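Sample A.
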Amino acid sequence: MVQTGHKTAAEVMVMADELIGKRGKHIAPKVLTSWQADLSKYDN
């Protein structure tokens, strides 16, 4: 998260959602849910 300049897991998730929407990519909901759960562990 430090490399992207984002301070919280929530900010990173918003950025990822925006990129997925802009690029029209499909990522399985199960994969996204798992990633978000793992990332949330780092949010204070």
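Sample B.
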Amino acid sequence: MDIQQKLHNVETSEQDYKKNCNAYGYNSSQAVDAFHEWYKAVLLLLKDYRSGESKEFQRVRNLDISGNGDILHDIYQEISPMCIMVIDDIEKELDVKTISDYRESSSESKVLKKIFISHSSKDSGIISRFVEQILRLGLGLAPEDIAFTSEETFGVEPGENIAKYIRDNICGAEVVLLMISSNYKASDICLNEMGAAWALGKKCISVVLPNADFSYLGWLSSLEKAVQLCDKSQLVSLSDKLVELLQIDLRKRFKSLSSGIDRFLSSNGTIATPKAEPVKNVLPTESSQVLKVFDVLFNSVCMGAGEYVIQINLRMRSDESNISLRRVFLRNKKHFTGTCSEAFKELEFKSYLDQDTINLTSLKKEDIAFWKKEYPQKCHQVIDVTIEKGHNLSLSFCEYFFTVRECDGYDELQLKGWSLVIQYNVDAEMIIPLELVPVDKVFAGKYWHN
């Protein structure tokens, strides 16, 4: 089998794996089998192209792939950035330049950037203001010092190969800023940029955007030391760190930096006042951020007047110690279930299902009775569920209920104001903001924008 065929096998098996994950879930037999096919294809490619003695081959070969689908997906996310780089090398006919080659040849092409801004294009508005008011006006960096793909001013010309621009400038950058948000985590391109920067040993600084919380970074590192874009003191600390790393003379720019930070904060109404921490832990300091929750999806379907089924899929993990769940419940700012005389703002989940047990998109009215009968047999009790250190637990919380019954009929279900409250260990609590995403084809008369 030649190198081109092995390359093709890696690419097609990866596509199959992604397709099966999306269609059936990480823990499905289809996804697990597809992962193992992709893994074998990667090993063959690395052995042929990098040799059996290479650190890449040894790293992949020594991985423990005996775990469940969640663990295998973590492994996929860990090594896929390296695979992308290897594939890119091969596609350039084995004539890739090393990082030092990129630096030495920069005078022959375009000057490489000092800072690479890894971000989602959906967040370009606030990041453009950050770049202009803090990096440019505050720190005095020139456009040619900054790689920022959302604006042509910073070196991305019309028609330019964006993938090559990103690759070259990550290789050449002295600092990579990871602008973390829900949009960032949902983007394969952003996660690949993060993985490439990590694999190249770049100095990475995580910056958390407003309305993101500590579950959004993913597998590469913790957000405990990340900079929050809504906090003035942390923006000052970030600026000081960039001054140190890029050897900027700040003596002449102190007033410009201070006013730049103030202008940035005042131009973003959502971050003018520091946002409350989304995670509350009343345990000792060393246990803060023990529980990590990610890949959260909140869906619903209306089965009739005031009759709804909701589903929350999520994954939990602890890298520091075992976690014991005590209570999980859904909360809204307004009453959403009960009667006009006895309405409630909370709905407790006393049990959970394995993910993919119920598919709301195919749920029919006649399935409700069957579902209510089968549910107790398929579910597990929440109380005292243990999440073992270093392991993921994939859960699906489902509930069938009626909205508040008024004299003229049932209320519609609200779309906003939701949060999931997870209480664990002795007295620790995590609050996760949610926004409801209905799977109904028609919204009229079923939901309201509160």
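B remarks: Residues 93-110, 270-288 have pLDDT under 50 and may be disordered. The first helix runs from residue 3 to 24.
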